[in-house]
Amino acid sequence: MIVKKAHQLGIKSITTSLLDYYKHVEQRALKRRIEFRFLKPNKHSDQQEMIETVQRIRNVTDAYQVGVKSCCEKYPHSKGFTKQGSWVDGNYLNKLFGPGAPNQPDAGQRKKFGCGCT
User: What is the pTM of this model?
Assistant: First the structure.
């Protein structure tokens, strides 16, 4: 439903990310009796699950001609299932609203994990 609506609105691309492990998120979730299963990017079975998840997303987005980008998902990006993306894209913000947003990589982000935020 989300991708269909995005297509109807003329949105050409979406950015997604799989759940990344943060200790404080896990601790807060456990206090609320919420349990996550975090995928490990270097574990073969988890890599396969990442690709299967992204492929299910791609099946829908491809049907509506909406591209998929990923932020902090180096493995699916390196295998060609997504394009490099960012949640905060200064170049795109400048295109939409005029100059003012930084377009240099954000040094505080996890670039080695595939973060493209500026």
Answer: 0.73
